[in-house]
Amino acid sequence: MKKYKWLYLALVIGLILSSCREEESIAPPEKEELPQQEVSYIEGFYLLNEGNMNMNKASLDYYDYASGVYSRNVYGAANPFATLGLGDVGNDIGVYGDKLYAVINCSNKVEVMDVATTERIQVLDSKNCRYVAFANGYAYISAYDGEVSLGPDKPNGFIAKYDTTHLELVDQIEVGRQPEEMAISNGKLYIANSGGYSPPHYENTISVIDLDSFQKIRDIHVAINLHRVRADGHGNIYVSSRGDYYDIPSDLYIIDAETDAVTHEFDLSCANLDIQGDTAYVIGSEFSYYTGQWTTHYSMINTQTKEVLAEPFIPHELIEKIKTPYGVAVDPVSKNIYITDAGDYVSPGRLYAYNPTSDSLLFEQVTGDIPAHFAFVSKKNTKF
Question: Cβ distance 104 to 89 under 8 Å?
Answer without folding.
Answer: yes
